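Annex B. Sample input.
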Amino acid sequence: MLHDPVTGILKMASERVKHRGLYYIARLIVLALFLSILFSPHWLKVFLGTPFLLAFTIFGTVVLSVTLFADLLFERQRNVGALILKYFFLTISVILAFGLFFYLNATMIQPPGIHYSSKDTIAPSAMPDLESDVFYLSATTYYTIGYGDLVPLGNNSRTAAVAEAFMGSLINLIVLAMAFQNLNKKGT
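Annex B, continued. Sample output.
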């Protein structure tokens, strides 16, 4: 069982979902960052290059991650569809939160933070782009794919990568168990 302070924080975060304001703001921040990664490298550079927006984005991804994880643990899920939607936002917010950490680590805390192990085979037109590569590293770590083309460099990045792989495995296991439980109830 979790320690009392941790349980208290998670239950409090779960209660926040019932007070939807902060939850929806955090969800919008996560969606904006996710869409900027997919469709607009310019806006991604704006997000990461502006200290206020970067801090606001970190806050939003962490709030959404903790809130959704707490909600997943302590609230009964209505159906598999609601569980899948919650899983989608939880996964995206965790990947983005760790990607933001990899970015901060690579630029401010412990540069260079990541190593491009396939730099020799990259086409000249496909130069490394730290702003999007940290999120790629985060996604491949979360899903424990680990292609090996980007490698965490330094103690901070390696520790974060192990923590993210563990969290990804744990979240996937919990969601899978809940989905089977929910489907099993409908079958009986």
